[in-house]
Amino acid sequence: MLSSPAPRVRPSKKVMGSKPGAPAVTGGGEPAQAASASARRGVAARSMAVLPIGLGGPHSMAAAWRVTGGRWRTFPLRSKADRMQGAFDFAAADLRRWRDALVRAFGPPPTGPRRSPVGQLVKSILSARTRDAVSGAAFDALVARYPDWRRVADAPVGEIAATVAEVTFAEDKAAYVRAALRRVGRERPDFDLDFLRELPLADALAWLERLPGVGRKVAATTLNASTLDRPVAIVDTHDLRVLGRLGFVRPGADARAASEAVTAAMPNWSGEEFLLFHLLLKRLGQVICRWDTPECGRCPLREDCPTGRAVTG
Ligand code: SF4
């Protein structure tokens, strides 16, 4: 199990969840139907990742990696139980320390009221590659125009696109929103997705990812940032970039692998804790660990970061 040579990177379908975008955590009305050790500092081994393959159930596995001499190698652990526990403890300590350092640096991020699951699903599809304020306004416009989700599902794509015109790729997103809502409406005529609260996490994610335009990021956001409040990590492009530079995920890992790694490492975190961690990492990625010019000298995580140490010496 632990001999897996690399993160499981699945072939990606064209989904909004694979694109950048912020989770929707601000308020807004909805159609009536939806209302329902470094501690190990200075040690090369501090750059490691736990890469679970499947969440929960008898097929859960994990592979531990670390950077040694600039190369990723499997982490030599003992029994299966020891391997998994050791790897998860290692990763959990990192995540808690990073969270605490980011809270000290930025303060606790505001989350605001939560949307219904279907409302969050729609908002998340609209959010890809679009600023939060813009996608939030587009969502509000959609809600104001249509009295319920059924009306959105029945509306012409062009009409939906005109309503959410300020978001990027408005036509594509309108088509995805309508197709996803039609699929939801066929299986759940009341558009109530509260049943996802009771499903095993992997099943709930899989149910959502069958919908058009829905990848891991949108699925995780729907489960975590909505009223469902499920404990699953949202990983957007900012989070993924930061986690990669920190060495928590292997270079080339995708958002799915990163989300599974963070989720598996923190089995006792609440949904709210996962959401806060996502927002904190995202903030770091937006203001300090930017794609083109990371400012490692003022980064609260620089002591733990192999990339930062390489830059600042
Ligand atoms: S030290 Fe630099 S590369 Fe590492 S997380 Fe901070 S800003 Fe990003």
Automatic annotation (TrEMBL):
Q: Does this entry carry the keyword Iron?
A: yes
MF GO annotations: 4 iron, 4 sulfur cluster binding; DNA N-glycosylase activity; endonuclease activity; metal ion binding
Protein name from the UniProt record: Endonuclease
Q: Which GO terms describe its biological process?
A: base-excision repair, AP site formation
Q: Which UniProt keywords apply?
A: 4Fe-4S, DNA damage, Endonuclease, Glycosidase, Hydrolase, Iron, Iron-sulfur, Metal-binding, Nuclease
- UniProt xrefs under InterPro entries: DNA_glycosylase (IPR011257), HhH-GPD_domain (IPR003265), HhH_base_excis_C (IPR023170)
Question: What SMART domains would the database entry show?
Answer: ENDO3c (SM00478)
- CDD domains, A to Z: ENDO3c (cd00056)
Q: Where is this region: Disordered?
A: 1-32
Q: Specify the species.
A: Sphingomonas lenta
Question: Domain HhH-GPD: where?
Answer: 126-287
- Segments spanning the bilayer are none
